[in-house]
Design brief:
By secondary structure, the chain is mainly β. Helices cover 0% and strands 43% of the residues.
Amino acid sequence: EIFQGETQVWWGFTGSTGGSSNAQEVCVTTSALGLPPEHSVCEGDGVDLVLQGAQSGTISWTPIDGLSDPAAAVTYAQPLVTTDYEVVWTDVCGDVLTEETTVEVLPAPQPTLPATAEFCPGDEVTLSVTVPMGGTAEWTDGTMGGEWTGDATGVQTVVVTGDGGCSGSASTTVAALYPNVASLPAVGPLCAGSAQDIVWPPEAENWTVNGVAVASPWAAEAGAFDLTYTDIATGCPLELEFTIDLLLAEVPVLPDAFAACAGSGVSLLLNAGAGATVSWSPVTALDDASAEQPFATPSVTTVFDAEVTDVCGSITTLTTTVSVYETPNPGLPDTVIVCPGQEATLDIVPLAGVAAPLWSDGSTGWSWTGDAAGWQTVTVAPLPECPGEDSTFVSPQNAVAPTFEVPALCPGDFTFIPWPAGWDGWEVDGAVADPAGLTVTDPGVYFFVANEAASGCDVAGAIAVPTGALSPMGLPDYIELCEGQSQTVNTGTPDPVYWDDGETGSIRVISQSGLYVATHSTDCGTVADSILVVEVPCGCAVFAPSGFTPDGDLINDAWRPVFECEPEEYHLKIFDRWGGLIWQSQNPEEYWTGGFREDDRPLDAKLFYVRDGIYAFQVTYRDPTSVVRRIIRKTGHIKMLR
């Protein structure tokens, strides 16, 4: 600034002639003004127009419309439309400067909503406004977008903001409608096919039944219906579930039969159902042919028909028989024979409408089955007033099948077995047999059935015909004995058995070498057999240590069986406690050091070592000192401890 912004300055001499006579004046003004070339405001808003650099002097804004002070450096502009303003500043020196600016009025969104928005029960209100391109809309509950849906009552306001930042709002009152619920008169129950008129109430209109429009009155039948209607006061559509029960007439029930003693009567116990009417025929022997349960007194068995008209008008005809009984005679036989393994059956002809008879053992029924000896009595009572009784004697028979002692049958022979007296009707193996007896050519078991004449009972049995054929002896061809040993042999045949050295018996003890011959004889022939006893040196014993300690101290670190000879066909196997093979060798000189070898790889190529514990071994070999050169097997257990 020049002279600190003062427009008048003094300068001159400082002598005694000072004063106003020495005053000199110069005019200094601003050489430039500052005013933004344009302003933007939303419709209805304003903006401060600030003219910068204008200090002393006069200011004039044009046009003056929408300005708060057209002569001030700072004036508030609120034009209705976009306006170009010019400001003229005349400084104290009389110089004039001009600036221009444009105030652009941006249009503000003008959303519109109805004054109120009403909704019916179960519905929602949907409000919508137009949102400018690139703008936003926000509702009272925070919902964003041009559409709001809900049932919250109260004032709902929306603020719409355009892409230029100008906004406008609108409000509406959301109110719930409370329509009057229509009521219909109670109807029913109704019979199938019948209907009752229902008049629609005056406060509702537009009635539908199961989706079909129905005018008043509605001819309603039994069933379940979905009704819809419109409440006239509010215009709200409503739904109503309406049910008319179906009147189910009771099904009439009449027993098929009744029983009465001669000279008495019985009530016909018909259950016709509520509201039903009855007509009986024939009317004779009935005290009231229109009663639901008349009393019938027929003199003979009579069939009655009941015509029942139910509450809905349907007609059903039922039939029953009234049996008239004299005192019954069950008609049992005097005696019943019961053979072994069988039961007696007593039958009585059933009487219609009569309870099952009672037997003396407490059972009931028209038939009795059992084998209890003694009198069996039955009581048949059509009614307590006219019971009938009868009895029979049940006589169980103790018939026992005959037995037969048949000698052994030699091959090629036959035998005749005569039948015992007092038996007839013989059948053997399902075929009729000779009345005199049975001729047998083959040993075996023959099954028969015969009738005992004394009791008349059929009895089953069997005849065993043993074979006399001689079976060969079962002596081995030879046996080996060590010196000083003995062995027991068995011929496998029954006694008597004779040996060539004077001994007898099918079982004997042999302690010396030699050839022994045994003979067994029966009526069917003779069989013989021999055995060679050989004395052999028994010097190839084997010793198997009970344990070893493979701990690397060079003391008892390995294990193998030790022989008194050079065994042949040697095979050693080691097993764990579960029977799994863990090591084997066919070299009698090879030791087991506790390793696991699952194949034939060398000893120094073991996969790993097994844990301490008890292991089983099996060694087989052939004794080279034996004449027969038999295979010997030895088993046992080894304890390994490191």
